[in-house]
Amino acid sequence: MALAMLYFAWVRETIGAGAESVDPPADVGTVEHLIDWLSTRSPAHAEALADRARLRAAVDQRFVPLDASISGAREVAIFPPVTGG
């Protein structure tokens, strides 16, 4: 399953890319499992995704908890908590 990954703010800066297309294994079924798998792609991914408490996610442009399913998803975004002002 090809999946579009989007990264924002310091996650993007640390990884060194704002987007990438990935093909996670079939056993990667949640955002949290996807983050685990992405962390193995490079040292930069591992650093950016290490502190789960500092990460938020959206699946197909809908905010979701990290335990949300990615089954059938086309796009997953990873970003730091959003602050208002």
Verbal overview:
The protein is α+β, with helices and mostly antiparallel strands and 85 residues long. The protein has helices at 9-15, 31-38, 43-48; strands at residues 3-7, 19-22, 56-59, 62-64, 75-79. It has a 5-stranded mixed sheet with strand order 2-1-5-3-4. A hairpin with a 2-residue loop joins strand 3 (56-59) and strand 4. It is globular. It starts with a strand and ends in a 6-residue tail after the last strand. The model has no long low-confidence stretch (mean pLDDT 95).
Descriptive keywords:
85 residues, alpha+beta, 3 helices
Short overview:
The chain is 25% helix and 25% strand. A five-stranded mixed sheet has the order 2-1-5-3-4. It is an alpha+beta fold and 85 residues long.
The string of secondary-structure elements, in order, is EHEHHEEE
- Strand proportion, as a percent range, falls in 15-25%
The quaternary structure here is single chain
Could you report the average pLDDT, rounded to the nearest whole number? 95
The total count of helices amounts to: 3
Q: Please describe the biggest sheet, giving its number of strands, its sense, and whether it closes into a barrel.
A: 5 strands, mixed
By helix and strand content, what is the structural category?
Answer: alpha+beta
Gyration radius from CA atoms, angstroms: 12 Å
Give the strand order of the largest sheet, numbering strands 1, 2, ... along the chain. Answer: 2-1-5-3-4
The number of distinct β-strands equals 5
